[in-house]
Amino acid sequence: MSYKSVLVFNLEKVLEVISMIMKKNVGYWDSIIRTIVGAAVVSLGMFYDNYWGLLGIILVFSGVVSFCPIYQLFKIGTVKTGLEREN
């Protein structure tokens, strides 16, 4: 077994575990709004040269991967039942 095949195998296992932990809990429209608002906050943070723009990165990330840890903490989900979207 070559080094590359072991690395790919381990990467697949890691991604499988992450997908089990980070089950999608952000719905379609929620992710779109998060991404747009997050991009606006990042832009304003860069324009005004302050660190509030870093909060926008969190919103963009949660919108793109459709996972919000705060939603998971409070057992909230905006994904429609039976319709989990794929990235």
Structural notes for this entry:
By secondary structure, this protein is mostly helical. The protein has one domain. 66% of the residues lie in helices and 0% in strands. The chain is built from four helices and no strands. α2 runs antiparallel to α3. The longest helix has 20 residues. The protein is globular.
Task: Give the gist of this structure.
This protein is mainly α.
Q: Tally the helices: what do you get?
A: 4
Derived from helix and strand composition plus strand pairing, the structural class reads mainly alpha
SSE string, helix = H, strand = E?
A: HHHH
Count of distinct structural domains: 1
Spans where pLDDT lies below 50 across 5 or more residues: none
Terminal CA distance reads 31 Å
Computed over alpha carbons, the radius of gyration is 16 Å
Describe the secondary structure blueprint for this structure:
Blueprint (H helix, E strand, L loop, with lengths): L2 H19 L6 H20 L5 H13 L3 H5 L14
Helix pairs in contact: 2-3
State the main characteristics:
transmembrane helix, membrane, 0% strand, mainly alpha, transmembrane, single chain, DUF2892 domain-containing protein, 87 residues, 66% helix
